Structure formats: C-alpha cells, structure tokens
TrEMBL record:
Main location per the UniProt record: membrane
Residues annotated as transmembrane: 6-23
Similarity-based family: Belongs to the LemA family.
UniProt topology in membrane: Single-pass membrane protein
Protein name: LemA family protein
The species this protein was found in: candidate division WOR-3 bacterium
C-alpha cells in the first residue's frame, strides 16, 4: 500500500515538473515571437524610410545600399546570436543614415520622414523591451532545467537550454557609458 502511494507521488511530481517545463519553454518561444514581431515591424518601416531619404539625398546611394543590405541580412537571421549580430549591424547603418539626414534640412522637416522616424524610434523601444522579456524568460527556463529534481526530468525528456539574445562582442563598446569631457 505504501509503495503505491510513493509511486503515485513520484508520478504526480514528474507530471507537475514536466508541465512546468512545458509552460516555461512555451513562454520562451512566445518571447522570441514577440521579438520577431517587432523586428518585422522594423524591417517594414525601413524601406519607407529609405525611399523618403532617397528622394532628397540622391547621391547618398552607398549609405542607402548598406541599410538595405543590413535589413536583408537581419531578416535572414535564424538564431538569437545571428539575429543579435545582424540587428546590431542594421542599427549601426541606421545611425549612419540618420547622420546623413542631418545634411538635409528640408528632409529633417518633412512630415513623412518625421513620422517614420518616430515610428522607428517607438519600434526600437518595443524591441528593447521584447529582448529583455525574452532574456528573462530564457534565464528562468535555463535555471529551472538545471535544478534538482527538474534536471532529471529535463534530461529525460530532452529539454535543452535556450540562447540569450546578446550584444555581440564586436559591439561591446555600446555597453560602455559615454565619456563626457568639458
């Protein structure tokens, strides 16, 4: 009789742990999907921005080409690491594009350009929040599958850690606070 009770408790514990791991894994996948949605929005805004700038800055072809290439690379990224690297490159090319825009006062005052710039800024903020949520979800999942007794169930059912969405080492200088000198 006691053996049956212990067996039932063990089976219930395994079911509980397995279901918890499923919930956490689903949360990580949902968080990644949210990043994907915001990145898609960003990718959709960029061609409109490039076309608006192209109308004013006809001789800035190189910058516009780099933005378009960076967008294509970012859209083709398949892993969090690839996506982070590609989107870092896209961010850098967009910064270059906005630096070029500074040379065109009429463009900076253009209502369409200003609207696109505001939408892109809002999207960048949403991407930042989505990345944070994704990394938090990954941290919770990865910690859970490493704890006992979850590690036993996780390895038994093939649960593996997820990658964080991290800034590539090449972009590490962005992590540092800017130095202001007077």
């Amino acid at each position: 009789m006691i053996g049956w009770i212990i067996l039932i408790i063990v089976v219930l514990a395994v079911i509980f742990i397995y279901n918890r791991l499923i919930v956490l894994r689903t949360r990580v996948k949902n968080a990644w999907a949210q990043i994907d949605v915001q990145l898609k929005r960003r990718y959709d805004l960029i061609p409109n921005l490039v076309e608006t700038v192209r109308g004013y800055a006809k001789h800035e072809r190189e910058v516009l080409t780099k933005v378009t290439e960076a967008r294509s690379r970012a859209m083709g990224a398949t892993s969090p690491k690839d996506a982070a690297e590609a989107n870092n490159m896209l961010t850098q090319t967009l910064k270059t594009l906005f630096a070029v825009v500074e040379n065109y006062p009429d463009l900076k005052a253009n209502a369409n350009f200003l609207r696109l710039q505001e939408e892109l800024t809002a999207t960048e903020n949403k991407i930042s929040f989505a990345r944070q949520f994704y990394n938090d979800s990954v941290m919770i999942f990865n910690q859970t599958i490493q704890k006992f007794p979850q590690v036993v169930i996780a390895s038994l059912f093939g649960f593996t850690p997820f990658e964080y969405f991290e800034i590539p080492e090449e972009a590490a200088e962005e992590r540092e606070a800017p130095k202001v000198k007077f």
